[in-house]
Amino acid sequence: MSHSNIPSVYEPHQVEGRLYRRWEEQGLFQPVPGPDRIPYTIVIPPPNVTGELHMGHALNNTLQDVLIRWRRMQGFDTLWVPGTDHAGIATQVRVEEQLAGEGLTKYDLGREKFLERVWEWKHNYGDRITTQLRRLGASCDWSRERFTMDEGCSAAVREVFIRLYEQGLIYRDDYIVNWCPRCGTVISDIEVEHREIPSHLYHLRYPLKDGTGGVVIATTRPETMLGDTAVAVHPGDGRYRHLVGRTVLLPLLGREIPVITDEYVDPGFGSGALKITPAHDPNDFEIGQRHGLPQVQVIDAKGRMTAEAGRYQGLDRWECRRRVLADLEREGLLVRIEDLEHAVGHCYRCQTAVEPMLSKQWFVRMRPLAEPAMEAVRDGRIRFIPARFTKIYLNWLENIKDWCISRQLWWGHRIPVWYCGECGETVVSRTDPPACPACGGAALEQDPDVLDTWFSSALWPFSTLGWPEDTPDLARYYPTSVLVTARDIIFFWVARMIFSGLKFMHREPFAEVFIHGLVLDALGRKMSKSLGNGVDPIEVIEQYGADSLRFMLVTGNVSGNDLRFHFEKLEGSRNFANKLWNASRFVLMNLDGYRPGTATPERLELADRWILSRFEEARARTTAGLETYELGEAARALYEFVWDEFCDWYIELAKLRLYQGTPAERGTAQDVLVRVLCGTLELLHPFMPFITEEIWQHLPHEGDTIMYAAWPAAQPALRDESAEREMAHLIEMTRAVRHLRSEMNVPPTLRAEALLVVPNKAVRGTVEQWKGYVENLANAVVRPAAELETRPELAAHAVVPGVEVFVPLAGLIDIDRETERLTRELQQVEKDLTRVEGKLANPVFLAKAPVEVVEKERSKQAELAGKRQAMTKRLAVLSRNSESGIGNL
């Protein structure tokens, strides 16, 4: 590709699709195994097949792609396994909504026909998110794409269920579960979102059977009293000692229930007497088990009252509450009502209040699985980054309950259990049984429930590589290297993968868990449809390009912390991409006669030695950031190097040799430019894959793609502290002269004089030798001296470390006119500042204005105060010059 035909403007939409198609068609994302190549594996957290790319996906997959591209360039045998999750509830709801639009329900179709519709929906829409991941630049091996319900993953799920059942680790039992009446299924503890809501504590009187008094209980859920089977008090509570063993009558229903004692009861809460409803409260269920209490279910799966609720049968649970309270009040049994805020569990998907309900479900016995999973983290075989998430993980496993794995859905992995209608045998089988193995009967009915979506996701690191078959991929790429995931699914997914990998592969599934935060809006709120504050990554990519989005997400990332999305930062990333493009274009347009290897050590001048040293520092910082999962720091190191050093200083310094230098000088500058630019593109490639590939293809290079270019190796010999020290002095002096020119409004076309007082002999020697750098970049004639015999009166003045800078103003500006202009501007600034300060002193404004508006005004105040200070100083300089007797200079 020609050096000079690079377009003047970088257009991401003309580049990204073309490059990605080429990468994928050429199989460049596939692993390249070899005896000297170490495997490096990542499995993608499978997005829901129903989903569309959101900012959380964009961040998560960008971080994974950075790691996989970096390791690929380092020569590892990299494999990034993509795939999607069948997402039980979410997908079923989508298809049911589609059917509702046709006036149908799933029951109109029946199970088999409904599942055909779901599969049809999956085939039509299921590749949407994987197409969007390609737009992001994700370099997954799409030839190995998996789906949690594909044939191989389904075989793994069934095998795991059977083995756990055979080992007594899966069982079926009546238990209190979290039931969502709207979704119509059980949900796990970690799928319940607890929210503090304003409520009431109702004090109810339960009369003694013999009519000699009663006991007052306190409850937040009076409708569940219809299912009470006891009243419990603490054994040490003297207030109720005389009631223990006696019988009370359940209000409204008249059922006789005993007064019992239990250590669980808190004497300090409410009245100290607790109504016990074993079928509708997990703690009451445990108390009921200890005391052999009956379980009376008064709320059904749709949230309506059952026949056990007597005259309240058929009422919605909330309407039942209102009726029960009215009836209790009429009968004089509602003692009092207190206001109370307390946590109520809601379904994470539909936000319906969860109903604790007694139900026959399938469970995994967790304690035997949790212990090895904790040990693997405690002994360092698995490391969380940041380390603070280790405690969160261990705390959850230390307090873990058995995992309810059955869901009352049709879409998902159906539980491989059959019940014989003839002999009652329960059959658990790897294959669908043709007949009952106990009696030979054919009346077998499969359990209607499916497994929790997370059951299949827990097997993802090894099921995707072929388990339970002993495949070459499984042998080479398991265990995986790192899991990259958000902090909100440590319990849902990470812990379950760890104990599943240890149980079935006898190895931890990954060595490291890299946790990132959530992407929030600019105000720090979680992005959601209800708030309408979501940002579509695909729209961002179409407007700004994938590289800009990726770089913004990475530079804003501090591992484990949430990230606020600001369009201003996105603009900054796009500006960086344009800066890189323009710098590269400048280099490419000045390569006539270029010969590699020209920049031998003896030909390097100070600027060359400095930029090579700074490049080596940037390389070291970038590599260290990647190795420690400080990806934001790695990207920021490159940003600072490219923008602040390579573009702003070295390219400008190289122009003199490129335009006016001897052939040898020009060749040296060209060679250094190409070396540094190529190395920088290689360091940037994992973060910004498209623009780096496009530029790299125009530069002199070896190989077909930057994806397989070698990661820049350490070159300690390039570090040159003396060059860095000398250039630092020259840069400070240049900045000082530029600043003085700007502050005093010196026209850019006029060449100024810069008097530099440099007492240090070594520094003065550097200035003498390389003053051309300052003269070229500051448009000034530089005159260094150890001291000045007389201090110039008509001069702007600045001090930088070890140097005093004077810029004489005579002949450069009209002092009177400049004084008049600055005075007018200062008056306007003071006027604006007075208005802003008045706003911020107004308590009504501070109380009513949105936080972001107040912050904007405070920023404006600081900016205006700074302007006022700078203008006042400049006027003071002009005033001194004017008083010296010089008028129109």
Low-confidence stretches: 882-889
What overall form do the CA principal axes indicate?
globular
Number of strands: 29
- Helicity, as a percent range: 40-55%
Mean residue pLDDT: 91
Can you summarize the main beta sheet?
Answer: 4 strands, antiparallel
C-alpha-based Rg, rounded: 36 Å
Strand content: 15-25%
Q: Count up the helices.
A: 27
Give the N-terminus to C-terminus distance in angstroms. Answer: 56 Å
The quaternary organization reads as single chain
Going across the major beta sheet, what is the strand order? Answer: 6-5-14-16
Give the key terms:
889 residues; alpha/beta; 29 strands; globular; disordered C terminus
Summarize the entry for a quick read.
With 889 residues, the chain is α/β, with parallel strands linked by helices. The chain contains 27 helices and 29 strands.
Describe the structure.
With 889 residues, this protein is α/β, with parallel strands linked by helices. It is 45% helix and 17% strand. The chain has 27 helices and 29 strands. The strands form ten sheets. A four-stranded antiparallel sheet has the order 6-5-14-16. β28 and β29 (803-808) form a beta hairpin. The longest helix is centred in the last third of the chain and has 33 residues, at 851-883. The radius of gyration is 36 Å and the shape is globular. The two termini are 56 Å apart.
